[in-house]
Amino acid sequence: MTDVAGVEQRWAAYFRWGPYGMLAAGTVLAAATVDAVGMTMVERYTAVVLVGAAVALQLWWGRWSRGRPLAPSVPGACYYFVRWALGFALSWFNPFFAFYAAAGFVAPDRLLRGRPLKLGLLATAVTIAGSQSGGMPLHGPLNWAVFGALLCVHIALLIVFGQLAAREEERTRIQTASITELERTNAALQQALDENAALHAQLLVQAREAGVADERRRLAAEIHDTIAQGLTGIIAQLQVVVNTPDADLARAHVARATDLARHSLGEARRSVHNLAPVALADAGLPEALKKTVAEWGERTGVRAEFTVTGTDEQLHEEIAATLLRIVQEALSNTARHAAADRVGVTLSFLGDEVILDIRDDGRGFDPLAVPERTRAGGFGLDGMRARAERVAGSLTVESEPGHGTAVSARVPLVRHD
To answer: Is the pTM of this model over 0.85?
Structure first.
């Protein structure tokens, strides 16, 4: 855009000062050849008057066109043809005034368009050809022949340069349109980038909020599965101590409460640091489940059995921790609500998935009538289902009043890295 503005400024400077220079050159050469051309006194005085008129015309044009864009207009056309008429008249008196008449060849499209442009170029070509053929008026067949040949050459040059100018104008128009389209595209791209940046920032905020909420749910579930269940077990053991007169039995239950407190403390510390459960620290999932089921059965007095089917594989720590937490929650629910005599836990490795089943012969319940979680309640079925879904798994519950409960969790088999 800066280059275009510079070109326009240079054209404006030419239209303001260029004709002065061409008139001055023609006047100097004409004055030097007055005697050689044979100008009479009347022609000399008339030429002086016409030169003064040309200067006045140029002064008027400079004042009128100042601050206006160079484009075809009625005043511009009047200026062009009056200038041509003065140049033609001066060239009639002295051929060297054709220097001034030649100004009509320079950027005429800035002043004329259409038929006036063609007429102005033809008139200027006639003036120049007449001056080049010896001056006007023409005398004899040779003068006319030379004039005709020169006029044909000028017309041919005008046609050639006109076509070249038209092509250049078309190329400029296409470039301008391309630049405009590129600017529009760049503006749209910048707007899209700004919108994308805003959306990215919004997504980061949402992801951060979702991560915080998920971390809160995880910590709540971990605390429920560790501290809450551990405290429940400790309370149960201490209640036995309070209600029994047998000192040996009381010491045994106190020892169990102490072990359970230590175990829960370790679980709480690891949960806060987002590490694997204590039971998985030194053993695989089958061994951890076997130990958890055995300790639960010993603590509650309920017959509990653990079975593994399929080929045992080392699972990813997140998968293993999820299944262990589901078993712990299911056993905790059984101890609190089921009044069961027998519990069975089965871990099955089946191809590309792992299935965990927890069954009891307790009182059962209606799954559709489970009340919502309250402040006093635990995470229960919703917590177990959320854990399974977090690792792309699922959890189903089958139960009926008086016929026990079966909880089944299915998760993908993701091996340990």
So the answer is: no
